Structure formats: C-alpha cells, structure tokens
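Section 5.1 Outputs to date
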Amino acid sequence: MVLKHLLGCTTLIADIGVESFVNNLTWFVSYNQAAITVDNYGIVTGVTPTRADLPGALNIPAEVSVMLPTWGTPTIAIASVTVYPIASTSIEIARDNMTFDNYDIAQFEVGDTLNLEAIFTTITGLDPSRIDLYWAITVPNPVTPGNTVASINTSTGEFEALSPGTGTIVVLNWNWAGTTPPVTFDAIAFNIVAPPIVPVTGVNLPNQDFTFVVGQPRTLMHEIIPANATNQNVAWIGGSPDVIIVNPNGTITPVGPGIGVVAVITEDGSHIATHSIVVIPSQ
C-alpha cells in the first residue's frame, strides 16, 4: 500500500490496488499530533507549522499513517507531512519613509530619480528571510515598444522619470509559504510632466585669458544666465579670419598676430556677449 499526495490538495490517497478495501482504511496521525489532524477520508488539516526555518514552528516533522486491516499483521503506509503557515502581508510604497496615498497620483518631473521602498504594515506567519519583492512599471498604450516613460530597478525600487506620461508603479511580494506562492502588492499611479521652461535672460564671457599665441588653440568659457535655463544652446562667431578662426563649440584657433573679435549668441532670446581677442606671435 502506497500513500500519494496530490499537489496543492490536502487529501491523501491510499493506493491499495483493491477498490473494495477503500472503506476499511483507518487514518491516524502517527507522529506530531500537535501539528496536523486527519479525518476518516484522509483529509489532512495543518494546525501548527513544522518547517524549521519558519517562526513559531515546532521543528518536528509530522506523519500521517493509514492502516488496512488484513489477516495477520495489518498493512500500514506512512507519509511525512510538512505544514506551512498561512502567509499574510500588507505592504505600502513609500518614499523617505512617507507612504503614498493610493487615492492620489504621484507627481514627478522628467529627470526625477528616487529610491522607493516597500513598508510592510503586517507580516503574519512569514519568515522575513523569504520575502521576495519585485518592482515593475505599467504604462497605458506605449507609443513605442518598451517603456520610455519611466524606468525602475526590479530589485531595489530605484525609479527614474524619463519623459512626460502616465503609468503605475507596482511592488509585488511573493510569499513563498507553500507550493503556490500567494501574492500581495501595492500600486500607485504616477504622472510625469516636463520641467517648467526657464528662459534665458543673458550670456557672459567670464574673466579668462583672452590672449592667444599663434598656433595654440583654446576653448573659451561662457555662462548662460540664469544657470538653470532650459535651453543652453549657443552659437559662436568670430571676426577677422586672418587673426582667429572660431569653431561651433567656442574653440579659437589663432592663425596670425593681431586683434580679433569673438561673440557667443544664445539660441533662446539671441542674447550676445562679445570680447576682443589678442593674438601674439609664437616664440
């Protein structure tokens, strides 16, 4: 006689080969009666966890036996039973230990980065070492394959807002407490907007060495006002091509002695700053 255990089912089946003997079986807990019970039909009910690595477990295996009365010595089959706890958790997505309100929409600007965390509000019958978090982002109807609105590290919850759009941040906790892991999760909707446009109000050529030696190019520095202006693009131009040649990134190549003029112009607002350049012969 052999005991079979159906995956995901609490009923044990005794395979005795003779159907007429099924109703003559006697089921009983043969070891660790505090952990399980069994009825006359082989239905086992877990009472106390038996896994050694789970909190509050008895750390003693349980056994169920079934006996078939036969002439002489009864036939007995034994099955070892492991009892897992019912794992129940509740988690909330948080930033800087402040939980998000699930009824609100988290607002971000493009370029924002933050480390999200999962705060467990309840943990029942779950070994903390077996917590398995997974972070994800869902976006409605992405324009292009993949997710271009935001990114998130599936293990750490590190979030980055990439482009304007909406979506949902989800954290899953796989509670590995049995053959089928139940899942608890929290989710928050988010909206990503472009940062406000900061207009350019001016441009400077700060104090620096404006004297060049023939054949020794250098790049000039410039300052956009304000420094956090949205559009940082500029164009460079120069006069007196027999004295200096100016390339688009502000690099000045002195080609002959004399005095030339360089100008930097902002793309936003066409603000301009100029300065004279003195070129001396090489030694």
